[in-house]
């Protein structure tokens, strides 16, 4: 694929990166419904949810220390008024994509299917590879030598702590919490859908209130609370 085609493809994936995993998750839910796997244990729910939540924690940390108008959810175009090189960005160049992968990895592992796990992992590797190429091209053009030096020191996605630098900005707790509202709600919804399918398959019940139900209620409350905050600020 030519460089221009890669960038065009990457820009397309960047624009729709928020919804690209949705068809995969729908397919996974249907696949799980028609599979013959054993009932999911509470330990599996807790372990998988911990992995997904670890992605949110990484996002909170990343966004909280990021410069203003960076590490956002923009889709129309690339935005970066400053170059993040300290804190988590001194360990790896793309912490938010690692965070997103952990969000979905926890969900996929809950389904206990090796083929599905490998397929979805390769899917994320594919889309993030091209998205990262686009972002790197944008940062090279904007920050030139400064970004080239940073690119040569810090790995793309696998963390390396040898060049760790303390964050140069103060932690913005409000900004980081607002940033995760969609992710938290998405995780809660998918975990509850899997749980509903799991319960129906093994007991015939359509609805059962449990701790995942309360987690969903909390996530909905958190989502709309943050929406109100954003509307009030605007």
Structure overview:
Helix content is 68%, strand content 0%. With 234 residues, the chain is an all-alpha fold. The chain has one domain (3-233). The longest helix has 30 residues, at 114-143. The chain starts with a helix and ends with a helix.
Per-chain topology:
Blueprint: H1 3-15, H2 21-33, H3 42-65, H4 95-110, H5 114-143, H6 145-153, H7 173-179, H8 181-203, H9 211-233
Helix pairs in contact: 1-5, 2-8, 3-4, 3-7, 3-8, 4-5, 5-6, 8-9
Poorly predicted regions: none
Number of helices: 9
- Helix/strand-derived category reads mainly alpha
C-alpha termini separation: 43 Å
**What percentage of the residues does DSSP assign to strands (E)?**
under 5%
Please trace the helix and strand order, writing H or E for each element.
HHHHHHHHH
Radius of gyration: 19 Å
Largest sheet composition: none
Mean pLDDT: 88
- Integer count of domains: 1
Shape: globular
- Summarize the amount of helix as a percent range: 55-70%
Give a quick set of tags describing it.
mainly alpha; 234 residues; 9 helices
Short structural summary:
This protein is mainly alpha-helical.
């Amino acid at each position: 694929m030519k460089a221009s085609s890669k960038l065009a493809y990457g820009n397309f994936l960047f624009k729709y990166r928020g919804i690209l995993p949705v068809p995969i998750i729908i397919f996974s839910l249907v696949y799980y419904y028609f599979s013959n796997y054993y009932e999911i244990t509470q330990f599996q729910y807790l372990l998988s949810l911990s992995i997904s939540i670890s992605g949110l924690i990484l996002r909170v940390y990343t966004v909280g220390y990021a410069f203003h108008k960076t590490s956002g959810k923009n889709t129309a175009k690339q935005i970066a008024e400053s170059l993040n090189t300290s804190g988590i960005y001194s360990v790896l160049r793309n912490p938010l994509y690692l965070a997103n992968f952990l969000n979905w990895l926890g969900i996929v592992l809950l389904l206990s299917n090796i083929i599905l796990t490998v397929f979805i992992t390769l899917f994320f590797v594919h889309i993030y590879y091209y998205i990262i190429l686009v972002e790197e091209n944008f940062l090279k053009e904007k920050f030139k030598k400064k970004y080239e030096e940073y690119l040569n020191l810090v790995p793309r996605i696998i963390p390396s702590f040898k060049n760790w630098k303390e964050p140069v900005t103060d932690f913005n707790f409000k900004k980081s919490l607002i940033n995760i509202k969609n992710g938290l709600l998405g995780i809660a919804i998918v975990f509850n859908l899997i749980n509903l399918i799991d319960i129906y398959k093994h007991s015939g019940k359509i609805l059962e209130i449990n701790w995942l139900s309360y987690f969903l209620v909390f996530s909905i409350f958190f989502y709309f609370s943050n929406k109100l905050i954003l509307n009030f600020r605007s």
